[in-house]
Amino acid sequence: MNAADISLLVKRPDLYVLKRFVSNHIERQVFDAYQGVIKLARIQNPPGLRNATMLGVAGPLIKFVSQLPSYSQKTRQITPAAQRVRSVILSSTDPIKLLFEDIPLSLDINISDNTDPSVWIDELTLRLQSVLQELADAYPALNSRVQQIMMKVFGHDNLSELYEEQRMRAANLLEICDDSELLSVMQAFAREHNDPADWVRGIAGAITRKHIDSWRDNDFDPFAARLRDYAERINQLEILASINGIMPREQVRLLTLLTPNGQMRRAAITLNGNDLDVKTYVEKIMELPLEKSRAVLGALAGRLMEETGNEQ
């Protein structure tokens, strides 16, 4: 208790209920099980709760769950058991009831006096350790999903390379972007970060207009759809820059195709001369007679533009 709690206790003792707890053999085993889980999960005791008291066991569990990101406290992308344990810990007002009733029941474990502790003590340890790990992993799993969709949308399998390429690409287009909504997202793309994961979180926050740690489960799909839309808009802006003689990057080329019906299709192509597959296929095409090489180029351009839908 801190000074404010003690002062309120003196002034309004009616607000407090003091409980005395004497543990029996089974309850001591339960304490040992909880302490083992806390140690394995590396959950720190709050200051002043360093002994094996009731609060010394319940306190670290409550602190662990209450300090999880908001997303982890709300998500349903975890097992029902993890959801139940999270709920009883967050709503707990009685550490005795929490440890000896709520958590075991949430894990479908009966620790009544009539039950042999050897039947359930190991199971309590394993199940609680599992759900705590789920809760700890929920936010990193969300971050991983966001990173994966970023790499998929922009055609990369390396996050660091994606960061370097797209950050520079956006930075070079900022001056010609007059759309305030797109500009705010591109500024997030262009921002420097030491960790590409922070860069991704910044972009996700700019697109959804709320920090990723406060997302709900239903925020991911709209984010993914809007990300694809922004990627296409950035690509179109790059095309316009190329048309007007502004070449943001040396490896970007504007490909223009005039179809027999008079339609003109354009696409900004990012060259990657270091890709071994690309080099191999280019060499094979160049070994063909000139007319056939040109025919391959035309066929590829037509097919790729049809698939990407880059038509102007």
What does this structure look like?
The protein is mostly helical and 312 residues long. The chain folds into 3 domains: 3-137, no CATH class; 154-243, no CATH class; 252-308, no CATH class. The protein is built from 13 helices and 2 strands; from the N terminus they run H-H-H-H-H-H-H-H-H-H-H-E-E-H-H. The protein has helices at 3-11, 25-40, 54-66, 70-74, 80-90, 95-106, 117-153, 159-173, 180-190, 196-208, 220-243, 276-286, 290-308, and strands spanning 252-258, 264-270. The protein has a two-stranded antiparallel sheet with strand order 1-2. A hairpin with a 5-residue loop joins strand 1 and strand 2. Helix 5 (80-90) packs antiparallel against helix 6 (95-106). It starts with a helix and ends with a helix. Mean pLDDT is 81; it is low at 20-24 and 45-52.
Give a topology summary:
Elements: H1 3-11, H2 25-40, H3 54-66, H4 70-74, H5 80-90, H6 95-106, H7 117-153, H8 159-173, H9 180-190, H10 196-208, H11 220-243, E1 252-258, E2 264-270, H12 276-286, H13 290-308
Antiparallel strand pairs: 1-2
Helix pairs in contact: 2-3, 2-7, 3-6, 5-6, 5-7, 7-10, 7-11, 8-9, 9-10
Number of domains: 3
Structural class: mainly alpha
Order of helices and strands: HHHHHHHHHHHEEHH
**Count of DSSP H/I helices:** 13
Which of globular, elongated, flat, extended, rod-shaped describes the shape?
elongated
Note poorly predicted spans: 20-24, 45-52
What's the rounded overall pLDDT mean? Answer: 81
C-alpha termini separation: 69 Å
How many DSSP-defined strands?
2
Output the radius of gyration.
29 Å
Largest sheet: 2 strands, antiparallel
Q: In order across it, which strands form the biggest sheet?
A: 1-2
How helix-rich are the residues, as a percent range?
55-70%
% residues in beta strands: under 5%
